[in-house]
Structure formats: C-alpha cells, structure tokens
Amino acid sequence: MKVTIAQAPVTASMKDNLGAVLKLVESNAGTDLIIFPECVLSTYEPQDKDYIKNIDFAQLSKSHEACREMAVLHKTSIIIGSIDKVNEKYYNTAFIFHANGTIEKYHKANLAFLDKSFFSAGGSLPVFEIAGVKVGIQICREIMYPEQWRLLAIKGAQLLVHITDCIEKDKYSLWKSYLVSRAAENQRYVFSVNNAHKTQGSPTIAIDPDGKILEEIHSEKAESRQIELDMSKPRDYYLNQRRTDLVQITGTN
Within the chain, where are the H helices? Predict the structure, then answer.
C-alpha cells in the first residue's frame, strides 16, 4: 500500500481549500490513499460563534462530490476532514472517499472544548478497509486518549490515521512525542496530517510500527510525501502480553 500525507491550508475560504486539495490529489495520483487535515473542506473557525451559521452547505456538498469524483478518476481513496450534517446535528468528520465511489465516515468522538459549542460527539470507533489494509481514524485532540487508539489496534487496525488542525504555539514537540508513542506502543503505522499554517502545533508525519519517523513535514506550505507501507511490520507482540485480568479495554461500537 502506498500512502500520501498531504498537508493543505485550512483557510476561511472553502473554494480555496478545495482548490489546494484537488491539486494535491492530482499530483499524487497513483497512490492508494491520500490523507488531508481536519476540516479542510468545511473550514475550521470554532472561535467564531457564528461558525456553523456562516458555512455554505451547498458549496460544501459540491466540495464533497468533487473529492468523490477525483477519488474515482484517479483510483485512489481520500481521507479528508469536513463537517457532516445528520438530522440537524453537525459532526466534525473524517470522510473516506473510496476509489470505487463509496463514502464512509468517522465522527470525532472526543470533542475539544470549542467543538462542543457546534458539534455532536460521535458514538463509535470503527475500523475501515482501504486497499486491503485495516484503517482506524482519530481527529486532533483524540491524540490525548491512548485507550481509543489501543481499541482500534485491538479491533485489527494496521494503520492509524490522525487528522488535525493544531496551530497552537509550543505544542510541536509534545504532539510529535504523542504520535511516536501511539505508533510504538500499538506497533502500528501512525500517519498524521496537519494544517499548512505558519504556526505548526503538530507535525505532518509518517511513523512506522517501531516508532521510526519515515517522513515529516514542518512547513507552512502545501506539501506532500508518499510512503510505501510494509504490511509485515504491524504486529501484536505487545497486545498479546496485555494484563487483561487487571486492565480491560472494551468498546461498545
């Protein structure tokens, strides 16, 4: 499996964001999966009390369809951040636009403080299949909850994808250490993609199941890197030695 980590700008303009995304998809055609940041299609302005009210959902629907069409055209799957509206509720969402035209979604389960003013929390931690690889997804602050990542590994995820819009100062080294830990402790690939912003609070990074950094982008520019996964590397050595008589991690979904 070949995966692209694609750092794109998350600006206040949905059309500009979509344009940057589509360029990165075109330049990485031929990879099995392309990963983009949190809420890059919808914009991410949770500090604005009118954030949801200001979103043009007609344009957002067009952006979703454009990504679906590009996934089919280039025979690549896309994981990308946006907003999903379901029965008058809004979810901070990772959309999966599959190469065959189908769509799956992960709704962020553990919401940030500002998120809670606008979004409903997701109620499950699903594992998806992309190009024959089992994939789990986490969004932004969910890096703080290693039990969620562990549950995804227990469920069989081989690649753990993390999308974020982390632009806080002085967080880079800390969040990088979290990502390396999530990879090494679960013995899974961890690929994280951040906003292309002048302030980087988290890296756009690819880490192998031993905690080795394969690629890292520390830049405010729209950039991408391609990584070939060795699927013999994810393993259950640590998982199989858990003291389940002392600690049990179980999920309802």
Answer: 14-27, 57-74, 146-154, 172-186
Q: What DSSP element (H or E) covers 134?
A: strand 133-139
CATH classification of the domain holding 216 = 3.60.110.10
Q: What share of the chain is helix, strand, coil (3-state, %, to 5)?
A: 25, 30, 45
CB burial readout 212-234, b (16+ within 10 A) else e = eebbebeeeebebbebebeeeeb
Residue 106 has pLDDT above 90, yes or no: yes
d(CA 213, CA 44): 28
Give domain status of residue 252, yes or no.
no
Question: By residue range, what is the domain housing residue 230?
Answer: 2-241
Residue 144 CA: distances (Å) to CA of 56, 138, 162, 222? 31, 10, 12, 26
DSSP-assigned beta bridge partners for residue 38: none
Residue 231 lies in a domain: yes
pLDDT of 71 above 80: yes
12-43 pLDDT, tens digit per residue, is 999 999 999 999 999 999 999 999 999 999 99
Give the percent of the chain with pLDDT over 70. 100
Look at residue 50 and tell me if it is in a domain: yes
Specify the number of domains making up the chain. Answer: 1
Report yes or no on 202 lying in a domain.
Answer: yes
> ∠ at Cα 104 (192, 200), nearest 5°?
20
The pLDDT assigned to 253 comes to 73
| Predicted structure pTM score | 0.96
